[in-house]
Amino acid sequence: MAGVEISDAMRRIAAGKLPGVPIHVADMRDFDLGERFDVITCLCFSIAYTRGEDELGRVAASIARHLNPGGVVVVEPWWFPERFLDGFVTGSVVEDDGRVVSRVSHSVRDGRTTRMTVRFTIADRSGIREFTEQEVLSLFTEAEYASAFAHAGLRVEHLAGPPNGRGLFVGVRD
Ligand SMILES: C[S@@+](CC[C@H](N)C(=O)[O-])C[C@H]1O[C@@H](n2cnc3c(N)ncnc32)[C@H](O)[C@@H]1O
């Protein structure tokens, strides 16, 4: 088992949750771990941080390069353009070990991307602080995902619905 993450801070969190599993700081658009796997997953719309079909194709090729023949790929996309709700808001609160964190987000469409503003408020014994993140996610069409996977030699179908409403691309390397 192994993982790939471009941010060292996120890599450290993943490594802490998966003792003994190598988590590499690497770019999904162009990584080479020098080994192949039977299953590769790319969940939580991480693939939509790429820009344009060229980058999408590079991710698909990187995945295919790391799969054994007959190996399985599972990718959770971001929304297809026709399903994205402009102005969507959501939020959640978690409480753990004397700390409360709230997260609210507002997402707008900007051409073929989603611009998501995410505001976090953190309260603990030391007080309350907040910060805001801006996320930009590509609105690839189902056909663009399918084409990228097909060009990489991955026979993939889109299963609509779970786990988060956007469905999953599930397939096999030829
Ligand atoms: C929505 S988060 C998912 C976090 C975590 N991997 C998970 O599945 O719960 C997307 C993650 O993709 C990472 N990421 C974005 N672009 C990347 C790239 N080109 N290569 C590798 N990781 C990337 C971000 O740093 C972020 O941690």
Automatic annotation (TrEMBL):
Its EC number is 2.1.1.234. GO terms for biological process: methylation. Residues 2-71 form the Methyltransferase domain. One of its GO terms (molecular function) is methyltransferase activity. Gene3D superfamilies: CAC2371-like domains (2.20.130.10), Vaccinia Virus protein VP39 (3.40.50.150). Transmembrane segments: none annotated. It is an enzyme of class 2 (transferase). Keywords: Methyltransferase, Transferase. CDD domains: AdoMet_MTases. It comes from the Bacteria. Pfam families: Methyltransf_25 (PF13649). This is dTDP-3-amino-3,4, 6-trideoxy-alpha-D-glucopyranose N,N-dimethyltransferase/N-dimethyltransferase.
